[in-house]
Amino acid sequence: MRILLTLIGSLLFITGVQAQTRDTIKLTLQQVDSLFLTNNFRLLVSRYQVRSDSALIKQARLWDNPEFTAEFGMNSWSHPKLSVGNQGQTAYSIDQVIKLAGQRNKNIALATLNADYSEASFEELMRTLKWELHKAFTEYYFQNRTIKVLKEQQLVLDRIVLAYSKADSSGSVAHADYIRLAQLQMSLKNDYLSALSRLMDQQQILQQLLGTARPVNPIMEAKQYSVPVLSEITLEQLIGQALKERPEIRLSGIDQKTAAINYSLQKALAVPNLHVGVIYDKNSSVVHNYMGLTMGVELPFWNRNQGNIRRASLQIEQSAIKWQQTQNVITTQVISAFNKFQQYREAFTPGALSAFQDSFSILIDKVAQNFTKGNITLLQFIDFFNSYSDNFNDQNGYYSALYDALNDLEYAVGAPFINH
Length: 420
Known about the structure:
Blueprint lengths: L1 H10 L13 E3 L1 H11 L1 H21 L5 E6 L17 E9 L4 H68 L4 H36 L5 E3 L16 H11 L1 H23 L4 E8 L8 E8 L8 H40 L6 H21 L5 H36 L7
Parallel strand pairs: 1-4
Antiparallel strand pairs: 2-3, 3-5, 5-6
């Protein structure tokens, strides 16, 4: 029994290090951001959309093509025969549409706003994807720290259970103690597998967002692994920055400008376009080789674009309400994210968790020593064993939630304001 207790004590703090595959990429948060900008497939597709919409500006600047019409004489109805010789009849005309009331310039302005909208949409997509990336990065990092502790405990407990199994067979330990340890082993394995499943989900998100099939191993430098402080930043400043930086504000502003220009365009479309052209008639006119200037205009008797003008007017009012809604949504999002982050930030003083963990590790070491000496029972040992892993889980869970709250706040503001 004495040998068994000594074996358990010596195995308690064996450090199990998970080997990384040869192809694993170790990346800091800054390196992840850089790889994200160049490799993310959704961003690459969105960039092409921005470029394609920008090409429509050039298209809007082009004039409408002139229309060419040719007429060839066919003698008479009773004797149809194509007659295009010297005595035959041919006529030609060219017609050019000239858009009035500034329609062309308004279409150019709309195409420009459409390109601006695509660019702002690209920025919004990038902001959202980066938020998902940072969330996956921090959750993977701290989840992996938890898994390492669970793996260490699992290796230790597996050997303890094996030793107790042999001792139980020889009758040197109580069978109930062996059953209790076996149950703890099963529970620990379930915790490990659940944590590993969540880690694999985050790994998949990281690989998809970074456009790589290679495993990604997030790392944090020593200077990064600290509790961020908002000492010189007020809530009002963050709200002001959000109302300036958020792509939704730009999108909403573009919607308002688009509605205004579209209303102006619809009114301009009520003005008939002018058709200007020339006509040549060989033998059918009052003189041979007749040349004439043509001018035409639509007569707006019934259709004066009334419906589209009314619709455009309502869209202006609608865009104004959406602008107010966007401002309200952004303001409330910043307030909520700020309060959430502050609650997590103020839950512990800087260094408190690390100091507590160091003290707890010393305590566990003493517990192990007393257990090997038989000064504490198996149930007491198991209780401290569970507390040790729970402490690591709680600490990693807190840091993960803290950095998630910071990530949510930066997402709400629309731009990073703390050097990670």
